[in-house]
Amino acid sequence: MAGRIRQSDIEEVKARTNIGDIIGDYVSLKTGGVGALKGLCPFHDEKSPSFYVRPGVGRYHCFGCGEGGDVYEFLLKMDHVTFTDAVERLAARIGYQLHYEEGGGGPSEGSNRARLLAANSAAEDFFRDRLSAPDAEPGRRFLGERGFDSASAAHFGVGFAPKSWDELTKHLRGKGFTQEELATAGLVSQGDRGVYDRFRGRLVWPIRDVTGQTIGFGARRLLDDDKGPKYLNTPETPVYKKAQVLYGLDLAKRDISRQDQVVVVEGYTDVMACHLAGITTAVATCGTSFGVDHIKVIRRVMGDDSSQGSVIFTFDPDAAGQKAATRAFGEEQRFSAQTYVAVGPDGLDPCDLRLSKGDDAVRRMIDARKPMFEFMIRQVVERFDLDSVEGRTAALRAGAPIVATIRDPASQNGYTRELARLSGADLQDTIRAVRAAQRSTGSRTEGADRRGGDSRDPGDGRTRSSGAAVGAALEPPRLSQADLADPTQRTERESLMVLLQLPGEVGPDRAARAIQVPFVNPTHAVVRDAIASQLATMEQPGWVDRVLAEVPQAYSSTVNALAVSALPQGGDPGRYARSIVDGLIDRDLLREKAELTSRLGRTEDPEVRRQISLAMVAIESERRRLRGE
Fold first, then answer.
1. How confident is the model at residue 477 (pLDDT cuts 50, 70, 90)?
2. pLDDT at 524
3. Between 482 and 226, where is the model more confident?
4. In terms of DSSP H, where are the helices of 442-555?
5. Dihedral, CA atoms, 575, 580, 584, 586, nearest 10 degrees?
6. What is the SS3 assignment for 560?
7. pLDDT tens across 415-442, in order?
8. Which residues, 6+ apart, have CB-to-CB distance to 337 below 8 Å?
């Protein structure tokens, strides 16, 4: 059994890792203040960013749900890996050689996430190599008939699974993977004749997570004697959750973030066709319908916190496509971005459209998108016989609930007129029908807004998830709005922020004076005492971690939040940090001066009065120095 990773290596890997780069693989991050990045929280649903990352400190914190920590904690919570897996993954990313103690010489060999990912990676290499083999001719022909050459196949990692009982199994067993690991990864199945390869005689696409790691596969039937489903995917595994995976997201995520656009298509070849045609924001679901978890993934990657973005769906014109459109519309308002539908001419999907009419036709299809509401109203109305009074009435009744869900009053008025035009109904009758639908359904324009899942804590104005109140009695007192408005407590909070975030700019001498200041807020006082206990190491790496180790567990979230909170943008950060701490010290000097003035008025002893006067002169001298006079 492998030993424990050396502690010095754990600290070195963390010090060398840019936490912003790691989290940026999962969340679209934008500038959020001096030295800070912000984005939509990956741990709870929210409409506007409350998730902050501070690479210089090496920590993140969500001011909505309270989640926070260092880069290891992020991976543990996000990917549900073990601590050892997290360290090994980051070490491999930066090319750092780890050392193991207690008799171990290498990484853990257990059936953990790292082993499953390694098995999938080895399987991907196997499939890709086999695409050039003679028996893979049906796979190459399938790709060629759809306009994909060998370079396209290589770009998307497409491979071929040979029609063999256990060729992949033998190959991976030869590389040291156990049968249990292969079964857990979904690469093999168990039958009456024993273990056999899950994918056989099929074209295979690797399915990767947002970081680019292969977590599963999708395989297309090629041979006439294959009685299995047309598409066969990896089953649910510890690393592959089909409801949370979007094919092509690893390739599309950068452009999705930059362009504020995502195109959701229906298949692997559609993703390939779109990307090759220049629509590099295309993704697809993997063996399941588009759902809430997919929306959460897209919103994080897109940074979906305004109505400026675009989410474009493409649907086949058949019954299945119409059903998919209805499901997508049911979740449409979870997006802040505007939603659209793009339908190809003659009902062609992106792959067939590219094959028959070229790349430009695919781009024109996306450019000709229609708003989701318009598309759905048309789909509903066209189901009825509009030549009859009964048909027009039924169309109006079916379309009114759709219009009633539109939140923007101007848009709702416009679509009300459109529904009247399409259905042939009187405008006033249409207005009444929409209003009736609003009353009967509790329109989303009134009451709860489905585009967010947040609630606000009236005590501190922070967005909190539905479970945030659990254990609240164990937490330190929160700052109320009155606390935040109090200049004294605000100065305390800002001083702690710069002491944690910019210790080198504050300097040990100024910090030593600051921690002598009595704090009004008891939570701030706890953090101040923790800083005081580690003051001698404030300019050494791992400063925030050492302060965190000093505070009681209930105060860890407070320290993390202070270490990540955004500082004002613009100007010199060092000058700002020193001015904040100097303001805290000046406040304390003013308090001391007031106390001395009171004592001076109460005593008649000449010597005591002389000493008090000297002390007051010293205080004024220090105050002038702080002000730069």
1. low
2. 92
3. 226
4. 481-485, 487-501, 503-506, 508-514, 522-533, 543-550
5. 50
6. helix
7. 999 999 999 999 999 999 999 988 876 5
8. 260, 302, 304, 306, 307, 308, 309, 310, 311
What's the CA gap between 35 and 303, in Å, rounded? 19
Tokens 């679209």 — which residue?
A: 28
- β-strand 282-285 against 261-265: which pairing, if any? parallel
Cα separation, 42 vs 244, in Å, equals: 12
The rounded Cα 528 to chain-centroid distance in angstroms is 32
- For 329, the token pair is 């519309």
Give the rounded distance of the alpha carbon of 120 from its chain centre: 24
Contacts of 157 (CB under 8 A, 6+ apart): 124, 128, 205, 206, 214
Instruction: Summarize the confidence of residues 556-571 as an average pLDDT.
Output: 86
Tokens 């959460």 correspond to what residue? 296
CA distance linking residue 96 with residue 88, whole number of Å: 9
Nearest of 267, 290, 180, 256 to residue 219 by alpha carbon = 267
The answer to whether the beta carbons of residues 265 and 349 sit under 8 Å apart is yes
Coil, helix or strand for 317?
Answer: coil
Distance CA 46, CA 462 (A): 12
Four-residue CA torsion sign, 456, 459, 465, 470 = negative
Percentage of the residues of the chain whose pLDDT score is greater than 90: 47
Provide φ and ψ at 74, rounded to 5°: -60, -45
Give, as one character, the DSSP assignment of residue 349: -
Positive or negative, the CA dihedral 554, 560, 566, 572 is positive
Confidence of residue 487 (pLDDT cuts 50, 70, 90): confident
At 319, list the tokens.
């019954």
User: In 3-state terms, what secondary structure has residue 238?
Assistant: coil
Contact call for residues 273 and 362 (beta carbons, < 8 A): yes
Number of residues written out for the chain: 629
pLDDT per position as a tens digit, 262-290: 999 989 999 999 999 999 999 999 988 88
Element (H, E) at 311: strand 310-314
